């Protein structure tokens, strides 16, 4: 799917799964056609004096003190929670799964939140348009695990994703990654430790065994716990 004003320059292989699950109901289609248009982060895509396209985040989130990014927000439980407890922060939610986006938009009709904007597509298409050092916190929560070894290169925690991510994060910004797959956690720590732009903040085992103080569990995490899978919470600092 190509968005207006966006160049589709992402690699051919995906780091996420399917784009559509069950057939959308009429109300969900309305959310996507009407509500998503109003909350589309691309509404604030403009040109710099040099002629390149960039998001105007000050215009997107007037009066907000920081901008955070959630990559793959699922049904949006965590995104809404963060927006509620951090009203002074603007949040960009990125998700390719249409059913999840529709679910979030339905929830937002019941909430008075002016600090959430969305990108319904692949974050790799949006990376080039986010200004340098603009993001102060990034969430990657329960990304697609790609369990087969031959698919590990598809995981988000690889250099092709970490390089543009580092560019848009402010020095001192935090990257939070949650997973219930131990091998995904292993690869995450391995790749982030090899990357000079990030530093793992863990000092004791409790730092990755205990959730963050402002954590909001997700539907996926509840399913993982029911299946006796152990969540792992990793925090990295942009150096």
| Poorly predicted segments | 1-5
- Could you give the order of strands across the largest sheet? 5-4-3-6-7-9-8
Oligomer class: single chain
Q: What's the shape? A: globular
Helices, by number, come to 9
Rg, Cα atoms, Å: 17 Å
Write the H/E string, N to C. Answer: HEEHEHEHEHEHEHEHHE
Which percent band covers the strand fraction?
Answer: 15-25%
Mean pLDDT: 90
Number of strands: 9
Helix-strand makeup class: alpha/beta
Look at the structure and give the CATH class. Answer: Alpha Beta
First CA to last CA: what distance? 34 Å
SSE blueprint:
Blueprint: H1 26-38, E1 45-47, E2 53-55, H2 57-60, E3 66-71, H3 77-85, E4 89-94, H4 98-108, E5 116-119, H5 123-126, E6 135-141, H6 159-168, E7 169-179, H7 182-194, E8 198-200, H8 206-209, H9 219-226, E9 232-238
Parallel strand pairs: 3-4, 3-6, 4-5, 6-7
Antiparallel strand pairs: 1-2, 7-9, 8-9
Helix pairs in contact: 1-4
Features:
Rossmann fold; 7-stranded mixed β-sheet; 32% helix
Polypeptide structure, described:
- By secondary structure, the chain is an alpha/beta fold.
- It has a single domain (41-238), classed as Rossmann fold, CATH 3.40.50.
- It is built from 9 helices and 9 strands.
- The strands form 2 sheets. It has a 7-stranded mixed sheet with strand order 5-4-3-6-7-9-8, sandwiched between helices. The protein has a two-stranded antiparallel ribbon with strand order 1-2.
- Helix 1 crosses helix 4 (98-108).
- The longest helix has 13 residues, at 26-38.
């Amino acid at each position: 799917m190509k968005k207006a004003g966006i160049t589709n320059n992402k690699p051919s292989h995906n780091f996420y799964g399917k784009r559509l699950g069950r057939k959308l109901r009429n109300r969900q289609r309305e959310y996507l056609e009407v509500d998503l248009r109003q909350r589309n982060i691309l509404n604030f895509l403009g040109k710099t004096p040099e002629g390149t396209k960039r998001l105007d985040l000050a215009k997107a989130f007037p009066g907000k003190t920081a901008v955070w990014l959630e990559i793959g927000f699922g049904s949006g439980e965590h995104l809404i929670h963060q927006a509620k407890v951090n009203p002074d922060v603007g949040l960009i939610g990125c998700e390719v799964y249409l059913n999840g986006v529709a679910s979030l938009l339905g929830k937002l009709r019941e909430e008075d939140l002016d600090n959430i904007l969305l990108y319904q597509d692949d974050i790799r298409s949006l990376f080039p348009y986010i200004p340098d050092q603009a993001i102060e916190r990034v969430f990657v929560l329960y990304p697609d695990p790609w369990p087969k070894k031959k698919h590990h290169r598809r995981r988000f925690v690889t250099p092709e994703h970490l390089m543009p991510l580092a560019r848009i994060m402010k020095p001192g910004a935090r990257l939070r990654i949650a997973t219930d797959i131990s091998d995904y956690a292993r690869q995450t720590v391995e790749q982030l430790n090899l990357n000079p732009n990030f530093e793992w903040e863990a000092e004791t085992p409790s730092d990755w065994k205990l959730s963050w103080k402002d954590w909001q569990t997700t539907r996926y995490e509840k399913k993982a716990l029911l299946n006796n899978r152990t969540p792992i919470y990793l925090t990295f600092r942009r150096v």
